[in-house]
Write a structure and sequence with these properties.
single chain; 91 residues; mainly alpha; 434 Repressor (Amino-terminal Domain); two-stranded antiparallel sheet; 5 helices
């Protein structure tokens, strides 16, 4: 965060290919859908046949570019389409 001479506040986010200070849309959507379905992170990881740490990293924004295989497994476990995980505004 930077405050300039006019007392305006500016927030900057720095991105790289593996980590983001802002949680990705995919991570937010996975978390929202998981909670709507009453699943724990551990249970989702088992249903999707991916590691527990992957679910945690996706939801926290430490993985922002998951493989299509991971997205397909998560979508199947959550009973949604891959496109639902990618939507900017999930209802």
């Amino acid at each position: 965060m930077i405050i300039d001479k006019d007392c305006s506040i500016h927030t900057f986010y720095y991105y790289n290919t593996t980590m983001s200070k802002e949680i990705s849309t995919i991570g937010k959507n996975i978390k929202k859908l998981r909670k709507q379905k009453g699943l724990s992170q551990d249970r989702l990881s088992k249903l999707a046949d991916i590691s527990y740490n992957t679910v945690i990293k996706l939801e926290s924004g430490n993985i922002t570019n998951p493989s299509i295989d991971t997205l397909q497994k998560l979508a199947r476990a959550l009973n949604v389409g891959v496109d639902d995980l990618l939507k900017q505004y999930l209802l």
